[in-house]
Structures are given as structure tokens and as C-alpha cells.
Amino acid sequence: MRDRILITGASVAGTTAAWWLGRAGLDVTVVERTPGFRDGGQNIDVRGVGREVLRRIGLEQAALDHGTEGTAWSRRTARSPHSSSPPIRVRTDRPPRWQSCAATWPGCAYFTIPREADDDRLWRWYNAPGGRSVSLRPDRHGTARAMLSVQQPPGGEQDWDADRRKAWLRERFADAGWQTGRVLDGMATTDDFYFDVLRQVRMPRWSNGRVALKPYRLQG
Ligand SMILES: Cc1cc2nc3c(=O)[nH]c(=O)nc-3n(C[C@H](O)[C@H](O)[C@H](O)COP(=O)(O)OP(=O)(O)OC[C@H]3O[C@@H](n4cnc5c(N)ncnc54)[C@H](O)[C@@H]3O)c2cc1C
Questions:
Q1: Is 63 in the pocket of ligand 1 (CB under 6 A)?
Q2: In terms of C-beta density within 10 A (0-12 exposed, 13-18 middle, 19 or more buried), how is residue 121 classed?
Q3: Is the pLDDT of residue 62 over 60?
Q4: Where would you tag: which of 103, 174, 185, 209 has the fewest CB atoms within 10 A of its CB?
Q5: Cβ(107) to ligand 1 under 6 A?
Q6: Whether the CB of 218 sits within 6 Å of ligand 1
């Protein structure tokens, strides 16, 4: 009899693990609690190991066919109105400390807004002074996916409702420049506003007997 594997969750990690384990000859069952696929969502960035996995599964071209063509960095020469500090230099002689990242990046909002004539097939990313960034990605539905992110110590944003979060973002990004005005206008009427804070889950171990965790990150 073939070994039997039960996988909980039919998202990226679950379906990928099922595909490989099935190929290895195991009898795999995947269970998923949600009743169907979500139609909405954001573009997904696939790099490094994630792209290698797609390649080996034979899905790389299919993903490219649905994707944007690359990233364009939108620059602006501005200094933060809140700080006279010199530019931050990142030390590269130490490994990254992820816990400090989690302590300073509380908020990220994603939503869909109308596309405009000069939206091309590039994902455009703009870093504004004050730890803010704005990005715009065209999708294949005739609209554009927008993101606003803010780096600052957490202030309880995870407990706010959508209206309060939108009001906070509108105020926080009011002077950000670039295409932010259009993004904020789109945020006011969008029907797929999503906001989350960056969190880190630290597990004391990754397996317990015959049960193992399988986190997945497409960016590798
Ligand atoms: C807004 C946003 C943008 C992101 N953008 C990117 C990106 O561009 N590139 C990138 O690499 N990553 C991105 N990520 C991270 C990426 O989405 C996750 O790393 C990835 O989805 C993790 O995959 P997973 O299969 O491990 O878990 P999940 O995608 O969380 O899937 C878990 C699945 O298990 C199901 N499940 C949970 N409990 C049970 C249960 N008891 N019984 C049955 N089913 C259950 C859930 O319904 C779900 O379908 C983003 C995340 C967010 C929130």
C-alpha cells in the first residue's frame, strides 16, 4: 500500500507539496476549509527559489503570461519634512535581523483602482520620505492594483476598522507626491480594500511526530 499523506490547506504550499509528493508516488489528500477560489487579490511577486519551483513544475511560462513585465522605480528628489537626518546606510556585514523589521513595518494596504492611460505593463514603485511607499501594478482585468505601505512603530492599526484605516492612510500620504492623489481617490471607492500589519510567527519547532509545517514564500 502507498504511504498516505494528508495536507491541510490548498494554497501555494499545500498544492505544491501535493504535486511533488504525488509525483514521488505517495497517496496525497489535500483538504481546504474555504469553499472556493477568491476572484480578487493582488499580483504576486515570484522570485528566486519560488521561480525555480515554478520552472520545475512546468508553470513558469503560464505565470509569465499573466504577469507584469518588471519593476520600474519612480524617483523623486525630496527630503523628509519630518527629519533632517542624513541618509540611512545599511550595514551588510551582519545577517538581517527580522525582528527589527517586524517592529517598524506595521501597515500595508492593497486595493484595486481604475487604470489610466499611462499605466503600462510595468509595476511602478515609489518610495516617499517618511517611510512611505506607493506602488501601482497593472492587472489583466483592465484595472490597476495599488499598494500603500508605511514603516513606523505599530500604533494599534490592526484593531481599526476599514474607515479609520483609510482616513489614517489619507492623512499619512497626503503630501507623498507622485501618483498618490490618484491612489488615495481610488482607495475611497474601491470595494476590495485590504489592510494588514506585518507580523512574525516564531515556532519553537517545525514538526511534531508525523505532522510538519510547510510555510511557503514565492519570493524564495
Ligand atoms: C497582501 C499580501 C501580499 C503578498 N504578496 C506576496 C508576493 O507578492 N510574493 C510572495 O512571495 N508572497 C506574498 N505574500 C505572502 C504569501 O501570500 C504567503 O507567503 C503564502 O500565501 C503562504 O502560502 P501558504 O500556502 O503557506 O499559506 P496560505 O496562503 O496562508 O494558505 C493556507 C491555506 O490553508 C487553509 N487552511 C487553514 N487552516 C485550515 C484548516 N484547519 N483546514 C483546512 N484548510 C485550512 C486556508 O484557507 C488557506 O487556503 C503576500 C501576502 C499578503 C497577505
A1: no
A2: exposed
A3: yes
A4: 209
A5: no
A6: yes
* Grid cell 512546468 in the structure block, residue: 58
Mutating to test ligand 1, I would choose from 7, 32, 68, 135 the residue with most ligand atoms within 8 A of its C-beta, which is: 32
Asked if 97 and 106 count as a contact pair (C-beta separation under 8 A), the reply is no
Atom of ligand 1 nearest to the CA of 9: 34
State pLDDT tens for residues 82-109: 444 444 343 444 443 333 334 455 689 9
DSSP symbols for 139-199: -TTSEEEEEEEE-S---SGGGS-HHHHHHHHHHHTTT--TTHHHHHHHHHH-S--EEE---
Which amino acid residue places its CA nearest to atom 35 of ligand 1?
9
Q: What are the structural domain ranges in the chain?
A: 4-68+204-212, 70-79+98-196
Does ligand 1 have an atom closer than 6 angstroms to the CB of 44?
A: yes
pLDDT tens-place string over residues 189-209? 999 999 988 777 788 888 888
- Tell which one of 8, 38, 125 to mutate to probe ligand 1, the residue whose CB is within 8 A of the most ligand atoms: 8
126-152 per-position pLDDT tens digit? 999 988 999 998 888 889 999 999 988
8 A C-beta contact, residue 17 and residue 24:
no
Domain 70-79+98-196 has CATH 1.10.3720.10: no
pLDDT in tens, 161-172: 999 999 999 999
Name the more confident of 180 and 158: 180
